[in-house]
Amino acid sequence: MKNITLVLAALVLCLNGCVSELTPVVYPTVDYETVISTTTPLTLEQRAQMNGIYIMQEGRSTFGDTVAVRWDGEAMSIYTVKSVSFFYVRGGMRTDSARFVGYWRAVQGPETGEVSLGILASEGGKELAEGKGNGVGLTLRGTITSPGSSRPNTLVLKKIKALANRTRGFEIIGHRGGGRNSDRLGKSENSIELMLFASQLGATACEIDVYGTSDGVPVVFHDPTFTPRTVQGAYLLGDISNYSLRQIRGFVRLVNGEQLPTLEEALMEVVDKSTIRTIWLDNKDSRVVDEILAIHQRVMDHAASKKRTIRILFGIPTTEIYDAYMKSPLKGTAPVLCELDQASVRASNAAVWAPRFTDGLQSDVVAQMHKEGRDVYCWTMDDPGFILRFLTEGDFDGFCTNYPTLLAALFYTRKDLK
Fold this sequence. Notes:
This protein is α/β, with parallel strands linked by helices. It folds into two domains: 32-161, Lipocalin (Beta Barrel); 171-412, TIM Barrel. Helix content is 31%, strand content 26%. The protein has 14 helices and 19 strands. Strands 1-2-3-4-5-6-7-8 form an eight-stranded antiparallel beta barrel. An eight-stranded parallel barrel has the order 9-10-14-15-16-17-18-19, surrounded by five helices. α8 (263-273) packs parallel to α9 and α13 (384-393) packs across α14 (404-412). It starts with a helix and ends in a 6-residue tail after the last helix. 42% of the residues are buried.
């Protein structure tokens, strides 16, 4: 027994040593309440009027020539290709002008800072207050702080056109709920907190990973095992399937302190509290296929009672999941996303085919899938060169990405979408 204890202790030390420590990103403290309490919230029409492609008149050395501005609920986001940054700002109208505060973050590094923006009456504020026009010419003017800078930098954005879009629509799918732990978003991958924030990162959809506990409860988690990469401390290590939900709840916290969610908890929260329109369940455990399908039915019934439109896709990434699904008494009760060959897509009557990007554009196969009434999502798209090529030369209905901010910036500002 003593030898086993020593081996386990050495394993814990090794695992902790193998996980590289990244400096946490310290987000600025923003006084939203003062601005919110002294402004009037924008109407849905005013938010739509502000949405669009903006040219960077000042600030382009940091954020590039053009950016995408998009409202989601009560917050406005700005997505940039250069620096791969998102802005999160809140505020509202002051008679015939507007005031917003928030922060910006470069998601591929630690850079962040405060943001203060406004719209003058003479630069589109009056038309915005009156609900007139399409917002073209509206100017956002203000300042941002940056690491290493002794004083704020000027930022000026002017709207030049509406956001690009596809006739059929397009899903920007945040991988692992919207991002990875290594991206230091302040919210853990596959946590409810990240799923609820994913739309501010640019996502219109989320991909989440599903495993089963020892007592058969589907939980949302990316890896098959608990390690210091994904959870705090080393109280539980090894396969998720070795532990009951009660044990997990008693000893496991995600790296940013959140509770590891069950699948049902996560889906109910997304339905109730987000604007996400599609969830891709990347199922990893064939033992809990029936329970996942049963949860799907309960969540969709709940969504219907709330008059909430959402599509939850039962993912089939492996032959093991495929076989379990085809044998399930609940087969056919949920729309399916299949990553396998076209024969499996058809046999499972999948609503979505999801090939990996390394297989290329596959234009003929994609066209055939569309002819059969199926969508095609491609994964995992993180490189801007590949994203641009697949956007302009391909005909996909969505991309799964670790950087929804980058994909949103590239997608919404494109001129040559099919």
